[in-house]
Amino acid sequence: MSYLQRVKQTRLAKAGRISPLIRAGLIAGVVIAGLIFPLVALAGVGAKEGADALQSMPEELTVVPSAQTTYVYANDGKTLLTMFYEEHRKPTKIEDMSPYITQAIVASEDTRFYEHNGVDAKGVARAFVANQQAGGVSQGASTLTMQYVRMALRDGAKTPKEALEATEQTTARKLREMRLAIELEKRVSKQEILQRYLNSAYFGHRAYGIFAAAEVFFSKTPKKLTLTEAALLAGLVKAPSAYDPATSNQREATERRNYVIDQMVKMGSITATQARAAQKSKIKLKLTTPPNGCPSVPKKHNDWGFFCDYLRNWWMEQPAFGSNAQERLENLRRGGYKIVTTIDPDIQASAMEHILDKEKKKSVYAHGEVVIEPGTGRIKAMAVNRRYSLDQSHNGEHSDGRRRDAVRGNYPNTVNPLLGGGDMAGYQAGSTFKIFTMLAALDEGMPLNTSFYAPQRFVSKYITAPGPATCGIHWCPKNSTASMTGNQTMWSGFGKSVNTYFVQLEQKVGSEKAVKMAERLGLKWRTEVDQTLAGPAHADGWGAFTLGVSDATPLEMANVFATLAAEGNYCEPIPVRVINTRDGGSLEYKGKKVAGPRCHQELRKEVALAATDAARCVTGYGSAKGNCGTWETSPMVHAILNRPVAGKSGTTDSNRSAWFCGFTPQLAAAAFVADPDNPENTVGTSRGTISKFTVAQTLKDALKGQPKMKFTPPSAEIAYGD
């Protein structure tokens, strides 16, 4: 249809002789066709060619949601831990914006916004004349709607080529914007377009959208923007860097702001009196740098960084967030999620207090603790005597003399995952590993009263290389004190941590089954040595496994004992309680909530109850069924808690690390002390008990005011083999 034919039909449409829908389309078509001539003339192409190109363009704008900021909260859903973003943006409804900002943006960018249908014919003609006179592009003709279309096309680009096509200075791009702008205004109200624009525009300083701009420049919400603040922000959109008020020279920003205010007067949005007062005022900023990522957690709660780091690593492993780690990280930084985590600020603070009471941040020794909720796997605290920071320039000397000249130590500042969840192997966990041998034996039907005579030194069946713990070709472990010699059961052997009893128990059940039990309860082998020894070719000869020569993380060990507390119900450690999508819905994957507990009955209930009864002997609480003997390794734990508690202590050869894992029916915790930079560096006997006190004191604080829940006693059959 020719241009004259369109004009004729449009006159009929205006006379009411054509349906309203056809009428709107014809009017829009005439406007577009009429605008082709100045545009194509400027571009040097024929009118017919331009018209054909326009008609072939898509009519409907496909809007891809813009990148939005992900907010991460503590378990109360209110305490902000940090945020993740590529473009700091939080969508805001227009009713939650100050009227000044909507007025200012229209005055600044498109004074005829409420008069045109997406394309301003007068503006196009004016720009055409100006550009013809200038011999180039000196003036644009983009309406607010067209600008929004350009933003939407840019944000929806799937390739660099598409992104370039959305922003390059070409007639084809301008024609496409015009076509889409007119079609968009048929489907969407002016207020909706204005809202979308203000949520998409870039204001500088990594602030995308009006919410971020109000926060970054004035530390307030868009609802509270004043006239002068709104005019300043509206003026930034044209050239955020050139008019940036945070630079030392604010002259350009002031002139631009005052221009916007003048435009608001011309539009009748404000009075001349208001304008004069506003233009006299100086720019007053209250700059905010929104946190981004784990290094940006609040300074006074810097210890949250290690939990945040675990959350980030966990996220990158979840298939619900993408097909690979990079895609998942991008989703975290662009997805606009609200993540309510599991960390309890009070329990975290208590753990940090007790940790720092015993080992300061500037110590080469890391003293840390993880607290987990049985039955859910929710991580309540991840605390360590370090600062989560990338800046290690002032760190202490490396504790390994061979590396001292090359690198600094990882204290007090580090981002290493000292508590679990990353690629660190962990630390040798000593006699805490006896729990796996005992569980394997119970699982195979051996009762708690299984008895062996435990000598001071035992010649095992396991073959090992010559060394101080060998008798010819055999491995010959010994007990730490002569008082352990004699007949022992699982109750007394576990309570006193009798090495020679547990090696015999391991021989009877098979070390490969103890290794398998550890794997069933979540342990992963991260060193080449551990992977080799845990493999099928060597596991049945790994006698030293029961004494904890393998590495484990505090997170893993806390969850092992949380499984006992939950009576055999294994729950995957999880750092999230709620994950809401940008539209407010709960995120699901394959029909299940991503943030929900992931649990299954890994141990038979009677096995877990029996192991718990033996673990009660360790803490001084005493078992329900058996004889713990005349002493135990960790009596201070029950003395401090004064409630039902079980657990296991563990130290390695030469005291290279010292652990304690403790649990009540409500909470489980694991604490350690070791040198993560140099595993050969011994912690000394003075640090041998600090993990016991840390766990006991943290659990006492965390459970204050809660009922003293009791453990369920095991059956007589699994206790005595009846």
UniProtKB/TrEMBL annotation:
One Pfam family in the UniProt entry: Transgly
Regions crossing the membrane: 21-47
Domain Glycosyl transferase family: 81-264
Residue ranges annotated for the Penicillin-binding protein transpeptidase domain, each copy included: 370-690
Coiled coil residues, start to end: none
Compositional bias per record (Basic and acidic residues), positions renumbered to this chain: 394-407
Record-linked SUPFAM superfamilies: beta-lactamase/transpeptidase-like, Lysozyme-like
UniProt KW keywords: Carboxypeptidase, Glycosyltransferase, Hydrolase, Membrane, Multifunctional enzyme, Protease, Transferase, Transmembrane, Transmembrane helix
Region ranges (Disordered): 390-413
Entries under Gene3D superfamilies matching the protein: Biosynthetic peptidoglycan transglycosylase-like (1.10.3810.10), DD-peptidase/beta-lactamase superfamily (3.40.710.10)
Source domain of life: Bacteria
Catalytic activity, as annotated: Preferential cleavage: (Ac)2-L-Lys-D-Ala-|-D-Ala. Also transpeptidation of peptidyl-alanyl moieties that are N-acyl substituents of D-alanine; [GlcNAc-(1->4)-Mur2Ac(oyl-L-Ala-gamma-D-Glu-L-Lys-D-Ala-D-Ala)](n)-di-trans,octa-cis-undecaprenyl diphosphate + beta-D-GlcNAc-(1->4)-Mur2Ac(oyl-L-Ala-gamma-D-Glu-L-Lys-D-Ala-D-Ala)-di-trans,octa-cis-undecaprenyl diphosphate = [GlcNAc-(1->4)-Mur2Ac(oyl-L-Ala-gamma-D-Glu-L-Lys-D-Ala-D-Ala)](n+1)-di-trans,octa-cis-undecaprenyl diphosphate + di-trans,octa-cis-undecaprenyl diphosphate + H(+)
Protein name: Penicillin-binding protein
